[in-house]
Amino acid sequence: MASVTRATSSVCGEFIPPPRLLLGPGPSLVHPRVLQAMGTPLLGHLDPEFLRLMNEIQAMLRRCFRTENRFTIALSGTGSAGMEALLVNLVEPGDAVIVGVTGVFGARMAAVVERCGGRPITVEAPWGRIIEPDDIRLALARSGPVKAVALVHAETSTGARQPLESIGALCRESGALFIVDAVTSLAGLPLEVDAWGIDACYSGTQKCLSCPPGLSPLTLNERALAAMRRRKTPCQSWYLDLSLVADYWEEGTRAYHHTAPISMLYGLREALRLVEEEGLEPRFARHRLQSEALTAGLATLGLSPFAQEGYRLPSLACVTLPAGIDDAAVRASLLRRFQIEIGGGLGPLRGQVWRIGLMGESARRSHVLTLLGALEELGLEQGRLAQPGAALAAAARVYAGQGEPAASPQQSARMSSERENACS
Amino acid sequence: MASVTRATSSVCGEFIPPPRLLLGPGPSLVHPRVLQAMGTPLLGHLDPEFLRLMNEIQAMLRRCFRTENRFTIALSGTGSAGMEALLVNLVEPGDAVIVGVTGVFGARMAAVVERCGGRPITVEAPWGRIIEPDDIRLALARSGPVKAVALVHAETSTGARQPLESIGALCRESGALFIVDAVTSLAGLPLEVDAWGIDACYSGTQKCLSCPPGLSPLTLNERALAAMRRRKTPCQSWYLDLSLVADYWEEGTRAYHHTAPISMLYGLREALRLVEEEGLEPRFARHRLQSEALTAGLATLGLSPFAQEGYRLPSLACVTLPAGIDDAAVRASLLRRFQIEIGGGLGPLRGQVWRIGLMGESARRSHVLTLLGALEELGLEQGRLAQPGAALAAAARVYAGQGEPAASPQQSARMSSERENACS
Prior knowledge:
2 copies of one chain form a homodimer. Chain A is α/β, with parallel strands linked by helices. Chain A has 2 domains: 32-276, Type I PLP-dependent aspartate aminotransferase-like (Major domain) (Aspartate Aminotransferase, domain 2); 280-421, Alpha-Beta Complex (Aspartate Aminotransferase, domain 1), CATH 3.90.1150.10. Chain A has helices spanning 2-5, 32-38, 48-65, 79-90, 104-115, 133-142, 167-174, 222-229, 242-249, 262-278, 280-300, 327-338, 365-381, 390-399, 409-421, and strands at residues 21-22, 71-75, 96-101, 119-124, 148-152, 154-155, 160-161, 177-181, 200-202, 216-220, 304-305, 316-320, 340-341, 343-344, 353-357. Chain A has a 7-stranded mixed beta sheet, sandwiched between helices. Chain A has a 4-stranded antiparallel beta sheet with strand order 11-12-15-14, with helices on one face. In chain A, helix 3 (48-65) packs across helix 10 (262-278).
């Protein structure tokens, strides 16, 4: 007890983290400008200057989500809080919700629907494969009235990209809301909230936005807001009650709800500025290029994409481990000796796959080459490789334009410019 | 649309906040070392070095809460998320919960109990007054089986300090859990989780801990954990389900639940180190001294404490405005001309009181003097004062030991040392 109250030095020393190359499923690397913003002195959460910053964040998030939705905010919680916020506000006890399940995050959505008292109707596909739009059409036809269809755009557990373009129209035909998890896609690959008829969409900051974790950007259109207003029961969460949260974010009211995580919003603003400086299309092209180079390199090491061809995420490569690679041992060596973090498999894929994230600042040529070089060196030491260089050479061919798929002239121009600036 | 995808500069310029002296009800000022920690490069949330940092935070939080509770963590949300987390995990549909309501935050607790399907039994006192332990005893005797008693230790809307010392025993006699909101008290005034028989307690980071907002330190003892394990219904929140959150914080499991807000935890670790370097008792004494100096100065300006005598928070002075002071105009002038933020009244106290926070780094002599000087200058300009100096002189008398209540020798020594270091 005496040691608690004595004015001595803390038992904990200064925290100096080891350098890490973050190439896992998130958090991604954070740009120095964003780190600097995180350390900016605080304003009060009702300070006029802070409210102006919130407006700016909202405007930039709208451009990022490709939406005109007035209700576009950054929720005070991580991506999973965003998932819960949308479901808890849109789903009432007894509501049926069609949930696409092809991995961990679809399953999580179904679990949250249940906790809202809703009735999840799962439409499943084997992990790594997509759900065909016809399966959603069929489920809608068979299910009677459905409150919403909920799909994961980028399934972080499998590396698969779920096509969404035609689902919005199906939902409108049947009066269902269309809810989308864009945690691992926002700002890394095309996502068109308005054009695709998405009624409610959430993301996280620590993926392709390259901001530290802690906020969940989300957006709801008039259709979703009307469903919230029509609720017969109050939202079961007070913290995530978007009608209360809206009173704080809405210009004109700005009523205190809870104290906003000010530093996180500073960081997000700077991360969004970086997105705007680069432009969305060049950013998507950069993610595609780095993903192609990485995939080409990994193939030479026997690591092949897990997800269905044609539907692989540029932001996250999920690759199957060949026999002979000891998952835990290699990942531990990467971390200890090379300071590189990559992700292991989740759930049934544990020990079967690696998940290598190339998101935001992590999607740079220097990082791809560093990882491939490290994997080759480890393979050599462990006797799995005779000599190094094949993986690096395969990546180099992609960068030289010899391994790329045909690209549009505009995309090619973007890629050339990306090539010059790749190694930031 | 073209403007969205063009790789031009962002429409938002660099963010350079105006300097602000934060003397409102939170966020409080943040020490430069904590700001620096917020900008530290990231580790992954499952990195062994990050897990070690979590252990250190837990150990320091236990000392701060004065508890041996193994389950002591920092929840990924603000103080209000901590409130909801405890209630949503401990209260099941139909459960009766006695809630003390003497201001906004007691009322919020009652609202959250209702959203959990619980039945709040409110024990009220006029705002600014405390609830007498006998009223809790009476409520327990009258109410039949009660799941919990929930009280706010430091009511941020009124500046009153609710005594808690004897409530734990009453709760144990009747089999109820004792839940405490310590948002505005933790690390600013004595709080004894174990000694007072508190079963579950939550706080926020942006008050007396002087860390940016975004985390909620919380602690549960074995009695509270047993109640969680005995639940008949699943927790309605997935994000705040403490049995799942525990799997991440528990050494030995460390299972992924959601991505921890890494930078916030960096900041909290440094803020806790500063608490330990100062020591809890000297820190409490510093808060008391600055509060006494401020109160003495404000009294000369006709601003008298709102809360019941003997039960006023050292961390937050809630003072009644005399006739002739225009609440909004003076606060706007303070902010615009002096860069000082203080808080207005909430709910029925809007326009009636000011809430001046002296929490953590905000509780410094230089800040007290700066505020008093600014108030005098404004009073002079607006014709409410004939000449300045009385408020500053009253504060100076307290600092000189002429206006202090009797203190123990140990406390006096602490105060002397504080006096020397006050203007950091």
